[in-house]
């Protein structure tokens, strides 16, 4: 288990695809829901993303932008357009409503989307709520753009073909394609020239620290010591401790504590019938009291209080 796969674990579209709109200028679509993460990609044509409080971003064919909530945005044919914005939310999903449309498999047979200046936009939203996903969100800017020509281009070919269909099971296919596109987009952006990626992204590629991270994420409940981690990673204790702290900003066992508490926070909400003691054992604490002390030190509240207050939101 690598850390990137673990952080992406909670990033799953599930019937949350806003849709595909084929637009003839002038147009202005205002997306108002502001979910934690929204992916916008242009299949054909071009347009402009106007994120609230951020500079405009032009999108051509196969360009993609990711907007981190709660920011909302507008998609227009031209930043100077004076056309009245059409408000789009999760309910804008049928042709009759004129907004983002593809939840019901809408398509105009025989229409050449690229002709006459028409633009086809695909927008997908992710209602992320897990603590694990929060680590990923916290590492992203409010708006990131990836130009055409990256790893996601083959996915867009599949996406364009599926958008033009109306088949049973289509929503599942679109959701998975959207997940694939999002992962490709974020990987391309994180590895892009001039980026300052989060520490966990760079550290996992280090031959020493990367192996240690894989161990911690694959076996978080193991009673790890620095000596055991160093032995499994093939280095001395001092080398591991120094290198890990340099790249991650904290010692290995401190990192492990924070990761265990992150896992536990999700389990407290996702498994309401599980006892605090059972969750403590799942993440590596044999003593529920020691788990509660660690949880309070990291989160500022007890596991029971966290479950009660967070689960009620």
From TrEMBL:
InterPro entries: AraC_lig (IPR032783), AraC_XylS_family_regulators (IPR050204), Homeodomain-like_sf (IPR009057), HTH_AraC (IPR018060), HTH_AraC-typ_CS (IPR018062), Tscrpt_reg_AraC-type_HTH (IPR020449). It holds the Pfam family Cupin_6. Keywords: DNA-binding, Transcription, Transcription regulation. Residues 210-309 form the HTH araC/xylS-type domain. Residues 91-115 are annotated as: Disordered. The keyword Transcription regulation applies. Transmembrane segments: none annotated. This is AraC family transcriptional regulator. The lineage of its organism: Bacteria, Bacillati, Actinomycetota, Actinomycetes, Kitasatosporales.
